[in-house]
Specification:
globular; 5-stranded mixed sheet; single chain; alpha/beta; 178 residues
């Protein structure tokens, strides 16, 4: 997108997801942390995003988790941020709370230093909840906060695209309460 403040690779990943979701009549929600809204921004940058995007939240702390996506999905014992279980929980809780077919969850340490759990800068977990759930560990090896935020968001969108592409192109899957 010419003149966009968002990187081309992020916009392209969002557009690919948008095409796949629209083709299948599916919807998506997002619960992201260290990406700071970039996953949602990439999905919303596509004209007609209201066809598939139901909502999202930046869940940056346990307080945000308690206030925005708790209650309808049981929280795993010992849940900690920036872990595989954290990302998977954010995805599933986001999906259930808004009734989406799919959801993305993300948590990581963007940098320039690691997080309080001992994870290095450039570490994230991304997850997809829905008919083809999946998780992916991202390690960039970089301490550039903004570059890591984009890398995590692109990884999350690519994971979603792969999961959606693995489903049938006919009919609707999962819950969709638009």
């Amino acid at each position: 997108m010419p003149g966009s403040p968002l990187p081309d690779e992020l916009l392209e990943a969002g557009a690919a997801c948008g095409r796949l979701l629209r083709e299948r009549g599916h919807s998506v929600a997002v619960g992201e942390g260290s990406c700071g809204g970039l996953i949602s921004a990439a999905l919303l940058a596509v004209p007609g995003a209201s066809d598939y995007y139901l909502g999202g939240a930046v869940i940056y702390t346990g307080k945000a988790l308690d206030g925005l996506v708790s209650g309808r999905v049981e929280r795993p014992d010992g849940l900690r941020g920036a872990s595989e279980s954290w990302a998977a929980h954010l995805a599933e809780a986001s999906r259930i709370h808004v009734g989406a077919t799919w959801a993305i969850g993300e948590g990581g340490a963007a940098g320039p230093s690691g997080n309080r759990y001992g994870d290095p800068a450039g570490h994230a977990w991304v997850a997809v909840a829905g008919p083809e759930p999946a998780t992916r560990h991202v390690l960039t090896g970089d301490d550039d906060r903004q570059a890591n935020m984009v890398a995590f968001a692109v990884a999350a969108l690519e994971l979603l695209a792969g999961c959606v592409a693995a489903t049938s192109t006919t009919g609707s899957a999962g819950t969709d309460a638009r």
